[in-house]
Amino acid sequence: MNGPGAGPDDPVIVIGSGIAGLTTALALAPLPVLLLTRDCLGEGSSTALAQGGIAASVGADDDAGLHLADTLDAGDGLCDADIAATILDHAVQAIAMLARNGMIFDRDADGTIALGLEAAHSRRRILHAGGDGTGAAITEALARAVRACPSVTVIAGADARRLTMANGRVTGIMVHQAGGMRHIPAWRVVLATGGIGGLFDATTNPVGNYGAGVAMAARAGAVLTDMEFVQFHPTALASNSHPLALISEAVRGEGAILLNDLGQRFMDGTPGKELAPRDVTARAIHAQIKAGRRVFLDARAAIGDRFGSRFPGIARLCAANGIDPARDLIPVQPAAHYHMGGILTDAQGRSSLPGLWAVGECASTGLHGANRLASNSLLEAAVMGMAVARDIRDHRFPRRQPQPRPQLAPTTIAPADPAPVRAVVSRHLGVLRDAEGLDMAIAELLPLALSDRPGADPALVALSVAVFARLRQESRGAHSRTDFPASQPIGTRHSMTLSQIIAAAQGITAPDLVPARSA
User: Fold this and answer.
1) What is the pLDDT at residue 1?
2) In a domain, 218, yes or no
């Protein structure tokens, strides 16, 4: 496994054990797979924390076309309609795959699959398990299936830090384990490393999720896209916890309303009210808090004593904070929740680098556009995990004689620490942004991103978000600029490599020395 170069019999390397990594590993069978996870299998992933469920057009009054229309509307002009249609067309296959691997969805009294409603969906199409424990149930089922799959070898406690390259293609990864750094040759690597919520003080994601896969891909030369689009969930439980507990959108789907501390239902005049798109709701709550108000979710009348049975996990989280949702108001605030941007991929999950695929939140397929439709992410991860596996099975080894020696990364690479960047990211890259704050963020993040200190990789990811946000001089979807409140007539996706991002950052911080690039 530690030889000088990759060969045709080397296992596929899958990095990450959320729904994206687990699905990919299972779908690759019988090809040998080496699944690397920083924590124990299934732990430390956003999937395990997902409450809302998985969106799929399986209802009698629903179809993939209606689901696509809702997705495109939420994406605010930046979805790739063809890729979105392809992913949503495979929803039934994804649900069937999960069922084959032991997933049991909630059902109504008549035995049909129970379907919930979430914001910006025109139909009830959200499948749940255990009320609000969908992500945990998916993780448990897929992890159990992976443990039983003879073609998958799991290595826990493995921190992947760098991709190695030769002749423009991937040749392996540098991984840190208890014994130190080692190189694992591979000519097929799948990044399924999750999102970037750990860059923010207020997040619903595991705090260690800083965008490791994005950083590895960027440093290897991969193209990144739409990095500015960070979705803030409107209703995280306001507390001192890290991460913040999530109060699922499904609670509002069951009729809970938003109130401020004056008892005003401030979303009442907004189209969709509490089920308006997430960016709209997050900005409304943010505005209340900035004005000195506190914001609460009121489920007393709509759900009341049914809360504990319908949302048992949320009820437990509330109880731990001294709140009884059947009788008390639930204090809420926006929190970083999902990243629509990431590593640019095509419909097969291929990145711009030969030998590198990306799937799940670290990838940007174009499904979500500027603003993810609720519960589309678990569906995307399952569908794209299967698509990546199909593509890899058809992917022939690039035979060269002799095989090129990889360009090895340093044998000591500092562990990533998001702590040094959280203050600047939270201050300047949050729900509302402006040029002054973005320029300050870029000036602070650039030197750290170019250093070899522990905060370098998180700073690189945060810098990418800031540069993309600075160059997008409009408000669109989850990206809101107070100095550019309107949207441009036509939405355009932006893509850059790391060298272009750094050049743009240098142009912003030292415009007389380096011309600023246009996105």
Assistant:
1) 38
2) no
